[in-house]
Amino acid sequence: MTASADRPAGGPARSEPEWVRHVIWWRVYPLGFVDAFPQPPTGPVGPEEHRLRRLVPWLDHVVRLGASGLALGPVFDSATHGYDTLDHDRIDPRLGTDEDFDHLVAEAHRRGLRVQLDGVFNHVAATHPRAVTARRDGPGSVAAEWFRAREVDGRTVLDTFEGHEGLVALNHDHPEVRDAVTGVLRRWLDRGADAWRLDAAYAVPTDFWSDVLGRVRSSHPQAYFEAEVIHGDYVRFVSDSGVDTVTQYELWKAIWSSLNDRNLYELRWSLTRHDQMLATFAPATFIGNHDVTRIASQLDDRRHLPHAVVLLALLGGTPTVYAGDEFGLTGRKEDRAGGDDAVRPPFPDDPAELSGDEEILRLHQRVLGLRRRHPWLHRAGATTDRLEKEYCCLRLSDGEHALRLHLNLSDQPRELPPDGDVLDADPATASSAGLVAAHGWAVTD
Q1: In this structure, which CATH number among 3.20.20.80, 2.60.120.1440, 3.40.50.10490, 3.30.70.580 belongs to the domain 18-379?
Q2: 318-322 and 25-28 strand pairing
């Protein structure tokens, strides 16, 4: 990441690009997916591996799944796991070359898939060349000004990100840092990216994002920016920062927690908050990602996994399917060294070689197809036609169109309303006469 001399004034945030209304992302953690991290025991991995191209055979799977975007985790040169960047302008040599990236993007676009990159701009690796220079040259040096730093016994100590010694925090007030991030965002958009995920965006001052994104949009008005925000006032963050959306961790937690407790009142409360967000922006929804236990492992009762999938597909927002969840893969995140490995595993080169739950895969295809046929769901709110602890009927509507989603977590069937046709349902419900089966679900018009 190098400084840029281009510093036009930032502009105000604007509505998300129209194309986002139709996006369903398929998110992948490339370093794990292609077995480049941890490094294979056979020895160093270099550009000759061209591992990034191993994603190309999966693009047809993404299309068949019903997704319309490829969301890539970190692909830039890094020290270990991708979030400790060494060079924002170079593809990680463990993945391949810039030309391999170009090939992947071209193949994605040829299939009509948008491409999102993962940008880590709150911190860099402790071994980043500029960080090494900052420690060498000491307090007050040009390099040290790029970091949040303090002087301890005459030496420069760089602040870390949440106590991680391998990650040093950038000084977001420094003009050159702002210029550098602006330049990185623009260069990869020029190279074919359509969108950015902004890692650890919550740890960066919102005025930094407002300035930088305003400048980027002056040259790339159709770019889309998703900020990783784990907690806090999501609406305020979007308003102050100018991002298009934030990661909806509140809803993620409410989905699996309410299903585990068989308490749909919790889901209803979270959807009230979700609707407040939808009045301002379309949240980035998910039930799995590279940082959390897979949904199939998070749920206590696998009978309720379809309920989580249907909620992801139909609730308002911009949904993301984490690679492997569509096959019902399991994996628990653990708080230890290597604790992410189970949720970031290698995948075979050919999707046909992956052994998974075919029923869950077909469910994803059906309900994502339903989502695509009703793009108004992107900003649809959810009201309750009927609510019990273990049963609810959610009315999803944008004011002009409506669908109803019936969720039954109980051991007893529930009656479906007489009005409305069943558009999709679990097998037991689909074969019943006007009932939502025990632990079943249905979508009606």
Answers
A1: 3.20.20.80
A2: parallel
